[in-house]
Specification:
Radius of gyration: 42 Å
Largest sheet: none
Strand content: under 5%
Number of helices: 4
Helix content: 40-55%
Structural class: mainly alpha
Order of helices and strands: HHHH
Distance between the termini: 84 Å
Length: 147
């Protein structure tokens, strides 16, 4: 059995809604009558005082005379250069490249065998940061905890 909404219920709901809106409007009017505040000047009525413009700041010199400024024209650059022909400048000339993973693996093995850091630095091309990281890894893995 369905219970529908009758016309009488709809009418009551509509009258309640209209009554609440009317009461709110009347309360707004009564409030504004009793508690009337002085009108403040609006922004459009305010006239800002114009101040004279500051003179532009002119630099005495744009760049020092010993510096050479050069603008790069990207329109006329050749973008199809061979990137494999570049030489690596970060590597020193007489020192061969080292395999970092292999060095770290060897350092880890030597640290687990209780070798000192001084020995590792003499035997392997390893930096202080890499050695500290490897020692920390060995300590966290538990292989060097019995020391």
């Amino acid at each position: 059995m369905e219970i529908g909404i009758s016309n009488e219920m709809l009418r009551d709901i509509g009258l309640n809604l209209a009554g609440f809106l009317a009461a709110g409007g009347m309360l707004g009017i009564v409030y504004s009558l009793f508690f009337r505040r002085a009108r403040t000047e609006t922004v459009t009525e305010a006239k800002p005082a114009l101040q004279p413009a500051a003179p532009p700041v002119v630099a005495d010199r744009i760049a020092p005379k010993d510096e050479h400024l050069e603008f790069i024209d990207l329109k006329h650059m050749t973008w199809n250069t061979n990137t494999n022909s570049r030489t690596r400048t970060s590597r020193s000339a007489g020192r061969p490249a080292r395999d970092r993973q292999d060095v770290l693996r060897l350092a880890k093995q030597l640290l687990t065998q209780k070798h000192e850091e001084r020995e590792l630095k003499q035997k392997l091309p390893i930096t202080d940061a890499e050695l500290a990281m490897t020692r920390r890894t060995v300590n966290l893995e538990g292989a060097g905890r019995s020391a």
